[in-house]
Amino acid sequence: MLWRITPPGGGPDSYLFGTMHVRDLRAFTWLELAQAHLAQCDVFATEFDFNEIDHQVLQEALRLPEGQTLDTLLKPGVWKNLDRYTRKKLGLTAETFRHQHPMSVSTALTAAFLMDEAPQSLDETLWNHARLLGKQTAGVETFADQLLTLRTITLEQHLKSLTWLLKNFNRQKKRLKKMMAWYVAGDMQPLYKAAKKDAKGMRKVMIYRRNKRMTQRFEEMAATHALFCAVGAGHLPGGKGMLSLLRKKGFAVKPLVSSEL
Predict the structure, then answer these.
(1) What are the strands, taking DSSP E only, across the chain?
(2) Is residue 178 over pLDDT 60?
(3) In whole angstroms, what is the distance from residue 173 CA to residue 165 CA?
(4) 124: closest CA among 216, 195, 47?
(5) 138: which strand partners?
(6) Is the pLDDT of residue 237 over 70?
(7) Is 15 buried (19+), middle (13-18) or exposed (0-12) by CB count in 10 A?
(8) Cα(109)–Cα(88) distance, rounded to whole angstroms?
């Protein structure tokens, strides 16, 4: 999950680290290795700098447009399933999520499949560690970029994704268990395939377009600084992944293992 990235023609080494945006301690398997190499860098970048979060804007973005509610947008059977699973997994009724954007609901239900053991997600833990070390922080996207991605995907697509989750709830739970095992083992290819499958008709917006943007920003920062960049593990592999895009730009890309601590 950790790769050394050397600029064309030499220069300071940078690092690209694949994370999972979760608080499940199994995902923290790579934390010690990541922290050791983060300490060698000048700049730490996540997908977006947590300093940029506008909580009011985010809260508004994760609500449905005025006059729309989930109970009318979802089919009655799907709404009934939503109420069953939110009661079981979150201790809340579906009514609590009536005005929430379907992506917000999907995220909450998916997170409930995993442990909530750490006080912060893996990304936030690394970001706070970088701040304690006095590192400059940045993002390979902006907060505005991420909101634009959310808005580019149609509401119908988000509803379709939530409907699929509610119809395949137990199946998705098993898939997430497998994905966590792949992450712990450092097995990127099945993780990448799972990420593509989850994105379905939204791959161009959610994965490929973002990979290009984040690679471009990585290249700009790594040209002048030793950079440690942490993004979701699904963005690293594949022909359109960040590792491949960096290679095409002339960077030397080498995986690191725990023995290199």
Answers:
(1) 2-6, 14-19, 43-46, 136-139, 227-232, 252-256
(2) yes
(3) 10
(4) 47
(5) 45
(6) yes
(7) buried
(8) 10
44 closest CA partner among 121, 119, 123: 123
Q: Quickly state the pLDDT bin for 9 (edges 50, 70, 90).
A: confident
246, two tokens: 């960096």
State the chain's mean pLDDT as an integer.
92
- Pairwise CA distance, residues 4 & 119, whole Å: 29
Quick check: 259 pLDDT over 50? no
> Quick check: 137 and 131 in contact, CB under 8 A?
yes
Q: Which residues contact 130 (CB under 8 A, 6 or more apart)?
A: 38, 44, 137, 228
- 137 class by beta-carbon count within 10 Å (0-12 exposed, 13-18 middle, 19+ buried): middle
Which pTM value belongs to this model? 0.91
Token readout for 85 is 């699973």
DSSP assignment of 56-108 equals HHHHHHTBPPTT--HHHHS-HHHHHHHHHHHHHHHS--GGGGTTB-HHHHHHH
- What is the tens place of the pLDDT at every residue in 37-90? 999 999 999 999 999 989 899 999 999 999 999 999 999 999 999 999 999 999
**Please, is 230 exposed, middle or buried when counting C-beta atoms within 10 Å of its C-beta (0-12, 13-18, 19+)?**
buried
Residue 143 belongs to what H/E stretch?
helix 143-152
Whether the CB-CB separation of 6 and 252 falls below 8 Å is answered with yes
Nearest partner of 26 among 114, 106, 113, 111, judged by Cα: 114
